[in-house]
Amino acid sequence: MQPGRKYVSDDGMVYIVGEKGLSFLHASDGKDRAEAPVDADTLNKAGIPHDRAGNFYTEHDEFTIWKVDRTGKKIWSYSRPEGQTGVIGFGLISDRQGNVIFTDTGGSIFSLDSNGKERFIVLRNDEGLVFTRIWTDPDGVLYASADGMGILAIAPKDK
After folding, report:
1. In terms of Cα–Cα distance, which of 77, 90, 87, 80 is closest to 134?
2. What confidence tens digit (pLDDT) does each residue in 57-87 have?
3. What residues form DSSP beta bridges with 32?
4. Which of 42, 64, 68, 151 could form a disulfide with 79 if both were Cys (CB 3.0 to 4.6 A apart)?
């Protein structure tokens, strides 16, 4: 089994996004599988961040995320701007348009499009450890709940 972030689907498949790209094993016996469902609905239900075109987002290290193809080949990388506090924390999510969103332990929120271009950054830059939880709804609204901040909603201009 390769190292990487693990996700579990309803049918008992364990998806691992890591150095070798996307790999699979079945929870019942732990054996590697050559194939598993990788359709958008399965990936969304398992919480695997993806671009809706067969590629995946993963944390490369504490400061950088990568977009990789199914084999783990890097398509692009993004490093947080200099001067940010904390490290990338608690995983990545993607929305229905294939954008990736992630937080850092300084309470900031980052959103990139599928080409790695910044869509927006909400800077908090807290010196303390801030736990920020993020999720999206079907209409493209991003919600964030962070220590000491309450709930924040960020919606596309047309919503």
Report:
1. 90
2. 998 888 999 999 999 999 999 998 877 777 8
3. 25
4. 64
